[in-house]
């Protein structure tokens, strides 16, 4: 593993004055921490990501990182000050072999651009420490004493800050009794040459309630909401045996007929998969998993759904909600709808209240009314980065 991102997320967010630490608050439908993590997870040159958390907020962390588990190293324990959290994170990483570079980033900066991450990594090919920041556009003065400064000599510090891993690990161990508000300061103290990368102006640190308002506006500018619609029909065929079931939303429903299909026939998951693919502007389920391909015979349809979900997370997208309507005369689904809802939420790493499953009859009309099959419609709304 050459390049690691260490995301510090162990602060209390006192200045935001919310009921939970700011990194777990949502902008749009997504937590600030998740927005931040997606930027690093989806960067082609970042090999692994570790988050430093306050263990008291472990449940919030699990909720915020649902679906990202496979892409993250287990979290490290935070400390009292940011500096302590960084040191703990670095020490936890020292147990992993072969780390060359480390990018240390505030969880509270969800709008970091891919370009800045790339530029920091590029500069690290030549230097052991690279800072990011914003050059000043306003006139710079001091109050006491009154003085004017040449603003070209100053910048406001952002993260990520990039380092040769062994160098910054050694410095954090050496300077643990000193006070530093960022990690490049340790290199400056040690006289190490520091490179500079201009940060993106939107890479604000969410610090006060006003930053949350501004963050909401940035979200509107950088992300788009898209909707997708999926529809599927499967016809009934005779039951296999007396204990026959059909699968709907990955739940086994007892019924005296089977669903005719190449896969496991989960007509509801097929509709949801197509809704997700449609929202992303992707091809339909049949193109990804052709019914003519023996490979997909009797396949568990959760594989199709998870593929669509993986495409979505790879694009940095998230699901806002899913709304499913199953139309069938029989079996009656009243007692299964809640299970289905929870199952879809579990499969897509969203909350139960982001999913709705409705069941209707067709009032005895048409093929559904004649009890020849089931049809399902699904609608979803997703949020995608504008440049996905
Ligand atoms: N003991 C700490 C303190 C801060 N941080 C992290 O460092 C980043 C920048 O810190 P800051 O904005 O100061 O966050 P908080 O300490 O949470 O904010 P506040 O000072 O308002 O409580 C944040 O992502 C925060 O979670 C951390 O990991 N451990
Ligand atoms: C590291 C940092 O984001 C650089 O600007 C900043 O110093 C962290 O915030 P804090 O309030 O100083 O902890």
Written account of the structure:
Helix content is 30%, strand content 28%. With 388 residues, the protein is α/β, with parallel strands linked by helices. It has two domains: 3-207, Spore Coat Polysaccharide Biosynthesis Protein SpsA, Chain A; 223-385, 2-C-methyl-D-erythritol 2,4-cyclodiphosphate synthase (60s Ribosomal Protein L30, Chain: A, 2-Layer Sandwich). Strands 5-4-1-6-10-7-11 form a seven-stranded mixed sheet, sandwiched between helices. Strands 15-12-18-16-17 form a five-stranded mixed sheet. Helix 8 runs parallel beside helix 10. The radius of gyration is 26 Å and the shape is elongated. The model has no long low-confidence stretch (mean pLDDT 95). Bound molecules: cytidine-5'-triphosphate and ligand LQXTBERG. The ligand C[C@](O)(CO)[C@H](O)COP(=O)(O)O binds at residues 82, 106, 157-159, 181-182, 205. Its EC number is 2.7.7.60, 4.6.1.12. Its cofactor is a divalent metal cation. This is Bifunctional enzyme IspD/IspF. Residues 226-388 are annotated as: 2-C-methyl-D-erythritol 2,4-cyclodiphosphate synthase.
Which CATH top level class of the largest domain fits?
Alpha Beta
Helix count, per DSSP? 12
Topology-level CATH name of the largest domain: Spore Coat Polysaccharide Biosynthesis Protein SpsA, Chain A
Order the strands across the largest sheet as they lie in space.
Answer: 5-4-1-6-10-7-11
Catalogue the unreliable spans.
none
How many domain units? 2
- Basic shape: elongated
| CATH fourth-tier homologous superfamily of the largest domain | Spore Coat Polysaccharide Biosynthesis Protein SpsA, Chain A
Q: How much strand content do the residues show?
A: 25-35%
Averaging pLDDT over every residue, what do you get?
95
Distance between the termini: 26 Å
Instruction: Work out the helicity level.
Output: 25-40%
Report the major sheet.
7 strands, mixed
User: So, CATH architecture of the largest domain?
Assistant: Alpha-Beta Complex
Order of helices and strands: EEEHEHEHEHEEEEHHEHEEEEHHHEHEHE
Give a list of the ligands: cytidine-5'-triphosphate, the ligand C[C@](O)(CO)[C@H](O)COP(=O)(O)O
The assigned structural class equals alpha/beta
EC number: 2.7.7.60, 4.6.1.12
Cofactor: a divalent metal cation
Region (2-C-methyl-D-erythritol 4-phosphate cytidylyltransferase): 1-225
Family: Belongs to the IspF family.
């Amino acid at each position: 593993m050459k390049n690691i991102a260490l995301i510090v997320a162990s602060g209390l967010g006192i200045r935001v004055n919310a009921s939970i630490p700011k990194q777990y608050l949502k902008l749009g439908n997504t937590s600030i921490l998740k927005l931040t993590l997606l930027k690093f997870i989806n960067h082609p040159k970042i090999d692994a990501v570790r988050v430093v958390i306050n263990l008291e907020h472990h449940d919030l962390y699990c909720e915020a990182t649902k679906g990202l588990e496979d892409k993250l190293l287990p979290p490290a324990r935070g400390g009292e000050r940011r500096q302590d959290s960084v040191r703990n994170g670095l020490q936890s990483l020292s147990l992993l072999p072969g780390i060359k570079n480390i990018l240390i980033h505030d969880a509270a900066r969800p709008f970091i651009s891919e370009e800045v991450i790339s530029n920091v990594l590029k500069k690290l090919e030549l230097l052991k420490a690279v800072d990011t920041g914003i050059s000043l556009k306003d006139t710079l003065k001091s109050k006491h004493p009154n003085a004017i400064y040449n603003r070209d000599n100053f910048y406001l510090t952002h993260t990520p800050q990039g380092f040769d891993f062994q160098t910054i690990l050694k410095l954090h161990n050496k300077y643990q009794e000193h006070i530093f508000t960022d990690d490049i300061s340790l290199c400056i103290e040690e006289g190490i040459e520091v490179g500079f990368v201009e940060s993106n102006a939107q890479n604000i640190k969410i610090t006060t309630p006003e930053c949350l308002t501004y963050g909401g506006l940035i979200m509107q500018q950088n992300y788009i909401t898209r909707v997708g619609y999926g529809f599927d029909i499967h016809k009934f065929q005779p039951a296999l045996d007396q204990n026959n079931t059909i699968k709907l939303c990955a739940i086994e429903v007892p019924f005296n007929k089977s669903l005719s299909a190449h896969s496991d026939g989960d007509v509801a998951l097929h509709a949801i998969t197509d809704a997700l693919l449609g929202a992303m502007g992707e091809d339909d389920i049949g193109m990804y998993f052709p019914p003519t391909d023996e490979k997909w015979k009797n396949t568990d349809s959760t594989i199709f759904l998870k593929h669509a979900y993986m495409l979505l997370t790879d694009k940095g997208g998230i699901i806002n909600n899913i709304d499913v309507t199953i139309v069938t005369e029989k079996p009656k689904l009243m007692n299964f709808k809640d299970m289905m809802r929870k199952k879809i939420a579990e499969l897509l790493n969203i909350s139960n209240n982001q999913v709705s499953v409705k069941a209707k009859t067709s009032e005895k009309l048409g093929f559904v009314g004649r009890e020849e099959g089931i049809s399902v419609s699904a609608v979803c709304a997703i949020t995608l980065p504008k440049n996905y």
